[in-house]
Amino acid sequence: MIYGYFSRRKWRVAGSRPGLPASRRLRHWLAAILLLGAFGLAYAGTLGYLFHEATFLTQPGDRLVVVFPPDRPVATALEQLGSAGATLTGTTAWPWLYRARALDDGAAERLAPHAWVMRMPGQPTFAGCIAFVLNKRASADSW
Amino acid sequence: MTHASGKPACRHLPGERGRSFAARKGLAGVAAALLVMLAVACSEAPQWQTRTLEPGFPGLDFELIVEDGETITEAQLEDAVTLLFFGYTHCPDVCPTTLARLGAALRELPEAQRDHVKVLFVSVDPERDDPQRLASYTGAFGAQFIGATAEPERLRQLASRYGSSFHHDAENEGEHYLVTHGSNVLAFDREGSARLLIRPEDGVEEIAHDLRLLLAS
Questions:
Q1: pTM exceeds cut of 0.80
Q2: Full strand arrangement of the beta sheet holding B145-149
Q3: Is residue A22 predicted with pLDDT exceeding 70?
């Protein structure tokens, strides 16, 4: 019975429910959009904060992976790296990809207009980013 | 060779012989290509043990004040392999260990080669590191060590040139402060071209190995 109900042709194509009138379908879509919007707005601040925190707010010693535009000369890239408050810790076979270490809080943020920066607190893994955020929250709680 | 019936033991279909010849030729080509690649890989010059730098990396170019108050430029280090390191004499950890490691690597070299290597220790703390202090500090590590410094702005420019930076921390109660700086050493060949990045995890043997290669190149 249930199988027959869900396997009916009209449920198979998402968004096209021939049984509903057009005005009701529109209302469903609007409700879904509003719900998503409300969710986004409710968590925009938190998500934005976490994104900013995880991306830009470096601490001295944080590892950075810096990707410059491929046409950027090596000398310019290095100068931008140094001027931003980072220090080169490793090079790769590609002259646009560098590993660096942040020397102060704003190194990644200053570097961001010139290059794509990925912050790697602790071990250079994606899990490191999550661990950093969790640690930060834990330490904030302990204050 | 034929069977008793007089039929050939192995018969090729029309065109098969040509295909097998082509396949053999293809295999021989692949084998030859592999051999060439192997030969290139084996004959490829030096197998560096520290990190090599891109050709576009800036060469040696500086003007600093050395231990006796005189000015030193890259021209005075011509025909020497130069190791460039940014640090300061009050550094409690990175600088003494790095310089000790470089000193140990230099001692691995024969004496004749050792004199062709210079370690340029650039102090990023010119306020406290005057020429006398620099001289006594670098002298403890060996005759190849040269202490140098400059005005803060020039130091910043020089550090940025090589993708490095430094940051003066706040003073504590005893008016002491730390300077955060990079821990890598840049190695330049006799022509002043940047060749290697020596990192804290590179051991004495590896550094000495690469210095030998740099001196031979």
A1: no
A2: B51-52, B194-198, B185-188, B81-87, B117-123, B145-149, B63-66, B71-73
A3: yes
Asked if residue B1 has pLDDT above 60, the reply is: no
Secondary structure (DSSP) of chain B: -B-TTS-BSS-PPTTHHHHHHHHHHHHHHHHHHHHHHHHHHHHSS---SSEE--TTS-----EEEETTS-EEEGGGGTTSEEEEEEE-TT-SSHHHHHHHHHHHHHHTS-HHHHTTEEEEEEES-TTT--HHHHHHHHHTT-TTEEEEE--HHHHHHHHHHTT--EEEPPP-TTS---EEE---EEEE-TTS-EEEEE-TT--HHHHHHHHHHHHH-
Select the residue of A78, A86, A101 nearest B161 (Cβ to Cβ).
Answer: A78
A117/B contact by beta carbon, under 8 A: no
For testing the chain B interface, which of A58, A62, A78 should be mutated: the one with the most B CBs within 10 Å?
Answer: A78
| Residue-wise pLDDT tens digits, B9-65 | 445 555 555 556 666 767 777 777 777 666 655 555 568 999 998 888 999 999 999
From residue A101, give the alpha-carbon distance in Å to each of A59, A64, A89, A113. 10, 6, 6, 17
Q: What is the ipTM of this complex?
A: 0.70
Q: Find chain B residues with C-beta within 8 A of A73's C-beta.
A: 56
Architecture of domain B51-216: 3-Layer(aba) Sandwich (3.40)
pLDDT at B193 over 90: yes
Q: Which residues of A58-68 are buried (b: 16+ CB within 10 A; e: fewer)?
A: beeebbbbbeb
Across the A:B interface, residue pairs with CB atoms under 8 Å apart total 81
Q: Searching chain B, which residue's CA lies closest to the CA of residue A86? A: B165
B167 contacts in chain A (CB < 8 Å): 60, 85, 103-104
Q: So where are chain B's domains? A: 1-44, 51-216
